[in-house]
Prior knowledge:
The complex is a heterodimer of chains A (76) and B (333). Chain A has 76 residues and is of the alpha+beta class. Chain A has helices at residues 11-27, 39-44, 68-75, and strands at residues 2-6, 32-36, 52-55, 58-62. The longest helix of chain A has 17 residues, at 11-27. Chain A starts with a strand and ends with a helix. Helices cover 76% and strands 0% of the residues of chain B.
Amino acid sequence: MNIKILGSGCPNCHRLEANVKEAANHLGIDAEFEKVTDMKAIVAYGVMRTPALVIDGKVVSSGRVLSVGEAEKIIG
Amino acid sequence: MELFTWINDYLLKMNWLKSGIEAIVSMSGLDPAGNVGASLTFFIYDTIKIFILLSVLIFMVSYIQSYFPPERTRRILGRFKGIGANMLAALLGTITPFCSCSSIPLFIGFTSAGLSIGMTFSFLISSPLVDLASVLLLVSIFNGKIALAYVLVGLLLAVTGGTILSKLKMDDQIEEFVFQTVLSMLTEEKLTTKERISFSSMQVKEIFRKVWPYVLIGVGIGALIHNWIPESWILALLGQDKWYSVPLATLIGIPMYADIFGTLPIAEALVAKGVGIGTVLSFMMAVTALSVPSIVMLKNVIKPKLLTVFVVYVTLGIMLIGFILNAFGSLLV
């Protein structure tokens, strides 16, 4: 599973990354994590609000920090 | 009308809270009317009041805003052109949630969808400036007339700004890559009620985390102004009869990166000391509409010439509003 966190480095992006990593841990999923901070790359996904979560190339959430529970539901 | 007064006094102004705190302060031996007692009362009462209002208002407002993600705003705006479009963009800017770190993706997203520069800028000006939670807080700290005036001039500033900027035909001032960005239309996430509640609570926590130091500092400064700084000093710098009060207030506000919630107690204290309402609103607008972080972000997507025009326009616009509101101040307070 390839998980990308899109965000330009503000605290919300870090929180999303932390929550998603924890969710992956809970589920025992071994995912490849990537942080995308380049604006052009972020916008290429069609995202208008950061932070955003991309799983295996598909944007699954944008503009909010998912709780660990919500992240688990999305990844699992 | 009775209901409105009740809501205003109990929920927004929380007079009961002030009396309660005064009682506690006098129990501890301090005279609530004396300088120290009054400052302490003000500090505790205002801090608690703002924190409560902040939590409730942000929750409610975020819930409403969850129905208006930028994707939806963009889709709605895509159908309009001209001044009407700018007005709609400014209005939607007030209810679309957006933190300054999203300003670039948002700008690019709007522009690549074909929305005119005018619309995008109307949105960018009104979004940080006029925001439901702060308007309600204005009603609490001042009154409904002032809050309404703030919203109207804010929207006016946004629409005029968008119109001027589009008339200047500065499309060449937007970085090339913005137009080259392939527009990918994301399907709007349909949120369940549970997700909306989660989003709103998260927003309250996030904003609280960001904002609490500013609120404390703002209330602290407000307390100093109320009870310690001599009125003559304040009026010397910011009195209504001083022509430089508005420009001074505006220029001090621009580089400040504080949250509007932190500026409110300062504004309240200044008005109580006789500073013109226009001067104070100019200060608040300057703090929210322009900030060093958002200008730095915008620099990535627009070239210096347009950026300068934008900053200069907003600055002068705010000053003009300040002068006008000071002139009409008696009608509002």
